[in-house]
User: Fold this.
Amino acid sequence: MIGRHGGGPETYEYQLLHALERLGGDHEYHVFCLNQAAVEAFALDSERIHYHLLKPANRLLSMTFSLPLAVRRARIDVFHSTFTPPPFMPSCSVFTMHDTSMFDHPEYYPTLIRIRLNSLIRYGLRGSRQVLCISEYVRQAVKDRFCLPDARLSTVWHGIDKRFKPVDRREAQQLLARKYAVEGDFLLYVGKFEKRKNIFRILEAYRHFIAAQGRDIQLVMVGKPDWNENAVMAKIAALGLQGLVVTPGYVCAEDLPALYSGARMFVFPSLWEGFGFPVLEAMACGLPVVTSNTTGLAEVAGDAALLVDPEDSRAIAEAMLQCQQNESLRQQLIDNGYRRLALFSWKQCARQTLRAYEQALADCRRERAAG
Assistant:
């Protein structure tokens, strides 16, 4: 996913490779990339890391035909699928399972995308020696739905990038005014415009919030346009929120700390998340968070956010009002967020991932020795 503005999965691939390299040791890592943009996005030059560019540029052809040949030529010991597995995986494989929403809620996805994703994920779960789940919620969902044994399932939380920290408010406001025409107080959402992100209810809650506040505070919705974008724009118009909702599209990672730091609060009541990177990013930048009391979000947020029913727009609005008006509550959430960040480390994620590689390799060697 890296080099494709791939959101959480792209962040995961970037941070994991960097953290594995920092662990040291005598392991070598072979990274199979779909284009030069991916290599450049990793921005990691190490004698222990080898990049392989797959051809042709067509993703389907490269993943189906070029990747298996390249993997065989590299003579790797363990193959790790970090997002979706290719149609043909080596026998000694590890797979990262990000979420099960495509199975639990097929209505969130266009039919053709869902069919392709589901078939590849089933294959990845069935064929991998170790499955890394990004939250305990995902691990339990995979265990229940696919009846996989505990020995093949691990919960491996993500970490948080050190660049996410509070930016001086005046500096942040100057950048936001210059680049995104955002001035004054605003609420912030960061994520794609997918159905599962609950965009319609965020907008409905925002309208309730504005009515109760008695004054206009902009809602900035940052994220890569998706298949749901036209419907979102129509909803904004139907609610009469034109001019109040700002949609700058994809924002480069370097500007995100300023966006978080300049906001009044972070609103992320998604219907389904395996983990929820933006929640941690907001906490790291000193922002109170409103998020869902379900899926991996409640697990990640803990006591450092106001947890709401994501299907109740009025409950979302009420939590937003509390974050806006109750200064002691705001400070408590911010303080709790800073403390909670200590639980999330890319170094720990890399160590657990490396253990999974070693376990998968040991299992494969044991099977070969047994004949």
The CA atoms of residues 130 and 151 lie 8 Å apart.
